[in-house]
Amino acid sequence: LKLQFLYFIVYLKNMPRVQKEMAKVVGHHEFDQESQLPFVDVEKEPENGGSQRTLLEKVKERPLLVGIVGTLVLLALLGGILGAVLGGGSGGGEGALLVGEVADSRLVAVIREGEKCPSSEQRNASTHIILPPVALHTTNGQGVRVCNVDCTILFTNPCDTAKWRREGKKIMLSVGGEEWGSCWSKCSGKESYLSEQLANLRASLELDGVAIVLDRRTPSDVAELADMAVFYTNVTQKLRTALPVNALIGHVGRDANLVDGAWHHKVVDVVGGSIDFLVAQYFDGVTRPGLEGLDGGVYSSALQHYTTLVKGCFGGDSTKLVFGFCITSCSTDSNIGTTAAVTVMRELQLSYPCNGGASYWVGEDENGAWGNSVSVPVREIEGCSVTGVSGSSSTPLTSTPEGTSSPPVTTLAPVTLQPTAVPTSAPSTPLPAPVPVVPRPGCSVSIPLHRECLYNPNCCAAGARCYKQSDFKASCLNVCNYPPRCKLI
């Protein structure tokens, strides 16, 4: 934009001179009304006995005019081209997308359903912004959500995304999340239709891609888990086909659902080559990096969880895995402040000097201070995938440019998912680890924690009690010696 403005100033400064030169050439010639080009009336006698000359002959006598006009045309063309490339204007359609950008060190800001658009301070440090999920329901007169049985999505863009793109942000639609609940099943078998709707909506809004957010409460029904795995695998693959090659696809999911063998892990294991990044949310699940560091303690090791995903799903490419944080709205032991988050990112760099960056719910960063602070260690390694820094000290990094994809992967066949218990590391403190208790018959086991006691405490075996970790998680324990988990139901 600055270049375009400069070229416009140059044009204005030279306009009087151009007009003067044109007046000398054209003189009092009349203009043809259709072609708007000057012509010579051959019926008129030349003035002062001179010979009649064509416009081309007069122009040849004035090379200065040719130079000025040619230069201005060239500057205008260059201004338009450079302005589109450097400014990434909102009116560029497909051409406004940056092709083949190598991505690492992202700071992904996620807007949840019902949250207002982030202020300039809140989004200042972010590189990517994920919009609230598209709706797959309507609301009746009683305020009850009714799923759209025909799988028609609804979305009104609440934010000035064109401005954000001019700021250099990558903006993505999102689908899924808690907002969808069980409505996803209405689109089962209609994955192509859903993907086409998302692709068309992305194009009409001139956004950079689509994020599939799978952070809803995990159902305990094994058959539903298997159906979800097949559905979201198909949606991802259909999206990759429906979107331009330079459009982004991301996944967002909970650490508990991304442990080896869990349903979302199975999805990513199949579609890892079709997505540009995965945000793994390290809170309210099996890890507590803000409380225990990357290596874990009473909870599982976030570093081991991260490593399993990098090596198992992305072939060692750590630039595809984004570390997700919760600032204020999660359980007390999951929330993480600025200092702890910066420490976690620096610890992650020790094992993965080139990684995918960090993510957070932007509505919780009231004045942008959290994002600005965490962006410091993130930006310190910016461009590492281009310079060839290894993803870890022992694993070579093979990075894929963001906005491109690997060859198509095979469709995920129906899978049978069994509840998976996640082993925890030995405690790093003298406190003994909580002792899990198998629920009574008829009470299912969730992955990886017992959940049924959250709704029915009688599911716990005799002598055990139900302790709540969050609004969606609870465990049956004989003894709870870890205070953050000892919220008795």
Explain what the structure shows.
- There is one protein chain.
- Helix content is 33%, strand content 14%.
- By secondary structure, it is of the alpha/beta class.
- It has an eight-stranded parallel beta barrel, surrounded by four helices. Strands 14-13-15 form a three-stranded antiparallel sheet.
- Helix 1 packs antiparallel against helix 3 and helix 7 (222-242) packs parallel to helix 8 (263-271).
Distance between the termini: 59 Å
Secondary structure: number of strands? 15
Described by the principal axes of the CA atoms, the overall outline is globular
Overall radius of gyration: 30 Å
Poorly predicted runs of 5 or more residues: 1-7, 9-13, 20-52, 80-100, 390-400, 405-439, 444-451
What is the helix content? 25-40%
Largest β-sheet summary: 8 strands, parallel, barrel
What percent strand?
Answer: 5-15%
Widest sheet: strand ordering: 3-4-7-8-9-10-11-12
Q: What are the key terms here?
A:
489 residues, eight-stranded parallel barrel, three-stranded antiparallel β-sheet, 14 helices, 33% helix, disordered N terminus
